[in-house]
Amino acid sequence: MDPPAKPEDDNGESMTGLTFRRATRADLEAIVDLLLDDPLGAAREDGSRPLNPRYIAGFEAVDRDPNQYLAVVEDGGRIIGSLQITFIPSVSRLGMWRGQIEAVRITRTRRGEGLGRQMFDWAIAECRQRGCELVQLTMDKTRTESFKFYEALGFRASHEGFKLSL
Amino acid sequence: MDPPAKPEDDNGESMTGLTFRRATRADLEAIVDLLLDDPLGAAREDGSRPLNPRYIAGFEAVDRDPNQYLAVVEDGGRIIGSLQITFIPSVSRLGMWRGQIEAVRITRTRRGEGLGRQMFDWAIAECRQRGCELVQLTMDKTRTESFKFYEALGFRASHEGFKLSL
């Protein structure tokens, strides 16, 4: 994950020409490539072509769920990043909606430029626009370099994230 | 949260006569009462009647989303617990589905009997039936007494859970 952006990056896409848009089926190979190019992803993704059919089924399930937003980030027509937002309704906390951010990836050659900050600024604004009052994510504890990044965005590490593989 | 159940509780609903079912609008007051009767919930829920309209809107959003399962637990026709499962599709990890468990509550008079264990056993089985390969949850770090409960269920505290209030 990138360190916090320099101040001139704070205004996000309007100053940089980045395009954030919903992913389409045609973006799927690029998204899988981004997922693969990651220390944890390398061990659990499949780079073979044609695409593993599981990716296609996964994409279709995301795409037909109106509470999922799988986004790609383009710069000059080239996909340089992706992330997924899940909008979660609930009864608890006065019927609060929350936005959950997952699978944030930036292409290797563009890391360290503050794009991570811009992607989170965009994603948080999307959550706000959808009426969310909380944004949440979990971070693998081995990604120690990301801890301060999230704190700089205003996140608090208030929770333990438990996972159970089935 | 309950401590791990005694061995005789391990077979869940079949041995105990508990009923797990999808919540209906008629259950909403009971669910709000359960949410309120919690150290953290007491500060952020609203027990007024008629129900705060935000709860009704929240329930309706959950109810119309096929990837949400708001469940109530009944014993002899009385609601004694509730929980919410969110089924999350993704492209990452080979298009893996994950189940996310949230807002697990047990009525005050029935705590300490192993019901928490049975509720998780049921919820995990639901996740498996829906094709999830991972179950996840976050736990407020102030709920220190729950840590061992989740570990005993097989969960690993592999992640930091970050939250940002909007």
Automatic annotation (TrEMBL), chains A, B:
* Stretches assigned to the N-acetyltransferase domain: 18-166
| UniProt entry keywords in alphabetical sequence | Acyltransferase, Transferase
**Statement: the UniProt record of this protein carries the keyword Acyltransferase:** yes
Endpoints of the signal sequence: none
Q: List the GO molecular function terms.
A: acyltransferase activity, transferring groups other than amino-acyl groups
Q: The organism's lineage?
A: Bacteria, Pseudomonadati, Pseudomonadota, Alphaproteobacteria, Rhodospirillales
**Looking at the record's lineage, which domain of life comes first?**
Bacteria
CDD domains on file = NAT_SF
Which protein are we looking at?
L-amino acid N-acyltransferase YncA
Q: Which PANTHER family match?
A: AMINOALKYLPHOSPHONATE N-ACETYLTRANSFERASE-RELATED (PTHR43877:SF2), AMINOALKYLPHOSPHONATE N-ACETYLTRANSFERASE-RELATED-RELATED (PTHR43877)
